[in-house]
Amino acid sequence: MAEVNMADIDADFSKKSSTGMEPKIAVLLAYLFSWLGGLIIFLIEKENKFVKWNALQALILGILEVACIVVISMILGLIPYIGWFLFSWLGYVAYVALWVLGIVAIVKAFQGNTYRIPGVCKLTDKYFKM
Predict the structure, then answer these.
(1) Is residue 1 domain-resident?
(2) pTM of the full predicted structure?
(3) Which residues contact 33 (CB under 8 A, 6 or more apart)?
């Protein structure tokens, strides 16, 4: 599968979003509100590749956050007594790590660049069509 041409996507940074928002604000909202923000921005954006690609990546990152918490809680819930303690720490570390990736993506978006989150960007490229 061919990688998406990021130069084409980054070129849309200076174009107005079909949402009426500045592209960097639309991307900020997509990452800030996790999977829900990513889903809403992805569905309503029709023209701006920069916004749409970042919204899809935010959506996938948000789904990954939820999946991590569910899997960690299921596995550690099977361990009596210490499972709760481990879940609180491991869940916290995983959640913070994913939020940091989102913050880096927001900062890069404000600079006019797209941050390709390792692993997540491959799924984003796979499902991105515009």
Answers:
(1) no
(2) 0.88
(3) 40
